[in-house]
């Protein structure tokens, strides 16, 4: 089993920055692609929105159009920790952010149903 623990959420003014971290553990965590999703207020779990993802090697990253140029996903060389640097935050970025991992080393598709593991989520609130 794989456990994912997020940290780094909080309250920030529009235009500000936050960095989220996600650390994975578990004896079955070996070569997993990882990503971030978010669930906006009033949305259901099934409506979680893809934000960004990174392959196991770290060579390839993916971003939702809504965050391109503002968010950056990265991975430590040890590869069990993933970061999401969020700059130029907007009120519409307010959501609970979830770390996700897949059993595959590559990232295929942005559907939340394809994720095998989830973290508990961390709240990000952007005030106007």
Structure description:
- The chain has 128 residues and is an all-beta fold.
- Helices cover 0% and strands 45% of the residues.
- Strands 2, 4, 5, 6, 9, 10 and 11 form a seven-stranded mixed beta sheet that branches. A four-stranded antiparallel beta sheet has the order 1-3-8-7, with no helix packed on it.
- The termini are far apart.
- The model has no long low-confidence stretch (mean pLDDT 94).
Brief summary of the model shown:
This protein is mainly beta. Helices cover 0% and strands 45% of the residues.
SSE order, one letter for each helix or strand: EEEEEEEEEEE
Q: Which of globular, elongated, flat, extended, rod-shaped describes the shape?
A: globular
Output the structural class.
mainly beta
Strand content: over 45%
Largest sheet: 7 strands, mixed
Distance between the termini: 40 Å
Helix content: under 10%
Low-pLDDT residue intervals, each spanning 5 or more residues: none
Count every beta strand, where a strand is a DSSP E run of 2 or more residues: 11
* Rg over C-alpha atoms, rounded to the nearest angstrom: 14 Å
Count of alpha/pi helices: 0
| Mean pLDDT metric | 94
